[in-house]
């Protein structure tokens, strides 16, 4: 029984479907096994393995896949076919009555190559499974619908120039998404579309190789090659893809350096310093990178001792350097034979050489106006220190090196001769002294002499070192100050001092001093050791401090130079008390004090007492001066409540010179700059009192103003005090109570009006009215 029915549209797959369809054996026939036993076949209801379906279906409607049929199906409509698995119900659908399978849309093998599904047959009425589920595969049959693709659209490659034919450049690879196992859809063949005849490509591997020999980078450096990959083994109708390969020829050292000219001309001024550049020459090399690196050298020429050449690695130039000073007047033209060579040689291309070149460089020296030139780099002269002013020291000489010689004048740089000790003849350069020199003050004098062209301003200086030769003009003297003493108990012939001498003069060989006494001394004698030292010895004993505390011993010291110089130095010998071993105990003035019974400790004590007494006297005088000052506050009872009293009664009412009475009546004129005399001001400028309140305010406001003014006064005393103010106010009904402005006498006044002022003035009325009644009585 056939279980699978093919679609009429799958005629192309007929053969494959037939091979893949399993045919049930004839019932009742059981093939024997290898042992001769008869095997019985188990009955199967399903008989299939796989279906094939073309991708990219272009027909109209749904694509027929195949048909499922079960032996249990009597075609009475009681069997229902069910399909599950990959794409069931979406991509694939089955007719549940007939078992026909259709694809609902076009399929792409490159998206999914096969689908696994499962089918079963069930009874529609009872739902009983008639055929158990069984899997089958729907394979998508490939067609050539994908073109080959390269991994990149553009490749970069390189190959050395001058390579042989077939030199490997690079390998390009394309891929095809079609099925490689079916037909030629994915079988690729490579070919070159652009880049011939320079390059070729292997059809099967995609390897690009050179096709021409000795390609030169200097002629052409970059090439663009287009490679095609075509499927279907390159046959007509196959799909293709292309890629671009940009190939660069790498440089090799196949081009030797070459000078543009055979002769180069340079100019150099004769004033060019050693080490300075004169100019440069450059050779050309068509290569690049290290293959174009060059090295310049001088082969020969009459200027190879005067000039040198160095290679500028950055610019690949040969720089001509001055090696020795140039002189236009001596030689004006030099010639050099210069060679340039590649530093990196490739022996494979040595036949293209030689990889070097030569050229001639002619250097012309230009004349410049040069300053005068001294005959020496420095001068050294000598002169005696006792030479008289005007004495010649030496002569310097300079000349003008130019072709046209100019006269030269000489001067001394006075910054090097501030004391004006020397002079120079401006015409012949003779140096002489202006003052007497002293070797002991300065042994050397360093001056600078300037040589200047008379017709120009160019000048040159040269150092002149003048040595002052020594003359024996200083007498020897003691080498140091000697503190000499002699003991009272000394014996005759005893050594008391060894002396030596020094001489500031510089001897020709060595100093030799002679020591002697100016006169015969009965107490001491001198012995010359003949080694520039001498010993002082006693001629007697029994010295006494009371008779003579010290002795003056004149010593004559002479040298042996010419003329002989001598001096007399006085040696002071003090008489001291010594112990039995000759150790000094006391000398001179202190010995006299000891004889009076006073010791050193007693003298110190007396001195301290005098100092203490003087301090007491000074302190007592200072205290008495402070007591004479009358204190500002006279404290009688309590220091917390004090009244400042001023014992100045003034001259009475008729005294108008002691004070200004107008001040009491008009507080605005009070002097605000008066300083307190009882304390030291703490401010640089005194506190200025605020003028009293204007417009004649009452007494209360005036007192409050004064109170506030005192509270804020920084010069007020730091204790409680009472301040009084003689301000009576103005605008009173009783007018002024003072009799200072009254022109009448006290007896002419009538005080009866006081009794009409009320209780506050009752006491005052009793006083004046009672006083007037008593006077009348």
Automatic annotation (TrEMBL):
It comes from the Eukaryota. Residues 1-28 form the signal peptide. The keyword Transmembrane helix applies. One of its GO terms (cellular component) is adherens junction. It is found in: Cell membrane. The chain crosses the membrane at residues 591-623. Gene3D superfamilies: Cadherins, TCF3-CBD (Catenin binding domain). It is a single-pass type I membrane protein. GO terms for biological process: adherens junction organization; calcium-dependent cell-cell adhesion via plasma membrane cell adhesion molecules; cell migration; cell morphogenesis; cell-cell adhesion mediated by cadherin; cell-cell junction assembly; homophilic cell adhesion via plasma membrane adhesion molecules; morphogenesis of an epithelium. Residues 70-150, 151-259, 260-374, 375-478, 478-592 form the Cadherin domain. Keywords: Calcium, Cell adhesion, Cell membrane, Cleavage on pair of basic residues, Glycoprotein, Membrane, Metal-binding, Repeat, Signal, Transmembrane, Transmembrane helix. The keyword Cell wall biogenesis/degradation does not apply. Cadherins are calcium-dependent cell adhesion proteins. They preferentially interact with themselves in a homophilic manner in connecting cells; cadherins may thus contribute to the sorting of heterogeneous cell types. This is Cadherin-10. It comes from Electrophorus electricus.
């Amino acid at each position: 029984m056939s279980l699978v029915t093919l679609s009429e549209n799958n005629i192309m797959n007929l053969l494959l479907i037939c091979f893949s369809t399993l045919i049930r054996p004839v019932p009742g026939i059981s093939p024997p096994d290898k042992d001769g036993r008869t095997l019985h076949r188990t009955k199967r209801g399903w008989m299939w393995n796989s279906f094939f379906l073309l991708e990219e279906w272009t027909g109209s409607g749904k694509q027929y896949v195949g048909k499922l049929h079960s032996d249990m199906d009597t075609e009475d409509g009681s069997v229902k076919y069910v399909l599950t698995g990959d794409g069931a119900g979406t991509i694939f659908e089955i007719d549940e009555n007939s078992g026909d399978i259709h694809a609902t849309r076009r399929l792409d093998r490159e998206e999914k190559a096969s689908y696994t599904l499962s089918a079963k047959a069930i009874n529609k009425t009872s739902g009983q499974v008639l055929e158990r589920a069984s899997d089958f595969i729907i394979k998508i049959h490939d067609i050539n619908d994908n073109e080959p693709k390269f991994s990149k659209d553009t490749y970069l490659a390189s190959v050395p120039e001058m390579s042989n034919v077939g030199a490997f450049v690079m390998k390009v690879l394309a891929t095809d998404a079609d099925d490689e196992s079916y037909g030629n859809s994915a079988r690729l063949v490579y070919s070159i579309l652009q880049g011939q005849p320079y390059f070729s490509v292997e059809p099967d591997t995609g390897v690009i190789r050179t096709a021409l020999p000795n390609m030169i980078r200097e002629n052409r450096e970059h090439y663009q090659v287009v490679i095609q990959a075509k499927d279907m083994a390159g046959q007509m109708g196959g799909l293709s893809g292309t890629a671009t390969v940009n190939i660069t020829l790498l440089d090799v050292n196949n081009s030797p350096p070459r000078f543009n000219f055979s002769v180069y001309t340079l100019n150099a001024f004769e004033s060019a310093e050693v080490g300075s550049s004169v100019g440069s020459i450059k050779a050309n090399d068509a290569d690049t990178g290290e293959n174009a690196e060059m090295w310049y050298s001088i082969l020969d020429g009459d200027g190879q001792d005067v000039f040198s050449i160095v290679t500028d690695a950055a610019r690949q130039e040969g720089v001509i350097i001055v090696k020795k000073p140039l002189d236009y007047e001596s030689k004006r033209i030099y010639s050099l034979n210069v060679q340039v060579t590649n530093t990196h040689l490739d022996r494979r291309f040595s036949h293209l050489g030689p990889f070097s070149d030569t050229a001639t460089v002619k250097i012309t020296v230009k004349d410049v106006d040069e300053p005068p030139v001294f005959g020496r780099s420095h001068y050294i002269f000598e002169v005696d220190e006792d030479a008289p002013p005007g004495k010649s020291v030496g002569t310097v000489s300079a000349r003008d090196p130019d072709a046209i010689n100019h006269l030269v004048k000489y001067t001394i740089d006075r910054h090097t001769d501030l004391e004006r000790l020397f002079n120079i003849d401006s015409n012949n350069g003779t140096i002489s002294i202006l003052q007497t020199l002293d070797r002991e003050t300065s042994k050397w004098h360093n001056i600078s002499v300037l040589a200047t062209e008379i017709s120009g301003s160019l000048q040159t200086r040269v150092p002149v070192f003048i040595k002052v030769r020594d003359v024996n003009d200083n007498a020897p003297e003691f080498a140091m100050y000697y503190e000499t003493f002699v003991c009272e108990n000394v014996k005759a012939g005893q050594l008391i001092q060894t002396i030596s001498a020094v001489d500031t003069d510089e001897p020709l060989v060595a100093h030799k001093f002679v020591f002697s006494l100016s006169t015969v001394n009965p107490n001491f004698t001198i012995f010359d050791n003949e080694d520039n030292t001498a010993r002082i010895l006693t001629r007697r004993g029994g010295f006494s401090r009371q008779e003579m505390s010290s002795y003056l011993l004149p010593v004559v010291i002479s040298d042996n130079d010419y003329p002989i110089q001598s001096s007399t130095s006085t040696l002071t010998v003090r008489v001291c008390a010594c112990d039995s071993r000759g150790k000094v105990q006391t000398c001179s003035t202190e010995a006299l004090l000891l004889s009076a019974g006073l010791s050193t400790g007693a003298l110190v004590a007396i001195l301290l007492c005098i100092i203490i007494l003087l301090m007491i006297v000074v302190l007592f005088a200072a205290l008495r001066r402070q007591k004479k000052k009358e204190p500002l506050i006279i404290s009688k009872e309590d220091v917390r409540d004090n009244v400042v009293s001023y014992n100045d009664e003034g001259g009475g009412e008729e005294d108008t010179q002691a004070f200004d009475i107008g001040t009491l009546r008009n507080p605005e004129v009070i002097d605000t700059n008066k300083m307190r005399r009882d304390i030291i001001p703490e401010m640089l400028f005194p506190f200025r009192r605020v003028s009293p309140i204007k417009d004649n305010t009452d007494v209360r406001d005036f007192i409050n103003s004064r109170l506030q003014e005192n509270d804020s006064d920084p010069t007020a005393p730091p204790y409680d005090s009472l301040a009084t103010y003689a301000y009576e106010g103005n605008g009173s009904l009783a007018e002024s109570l003072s009799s200072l402005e009254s022109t009448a006498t006290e007896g002419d006044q009538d005080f009866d009006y006081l009794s009409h002022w009320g209780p506050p003035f009752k006491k005052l009325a009793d006083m004046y009215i009672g006083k007037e009644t008593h006077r009348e009585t």
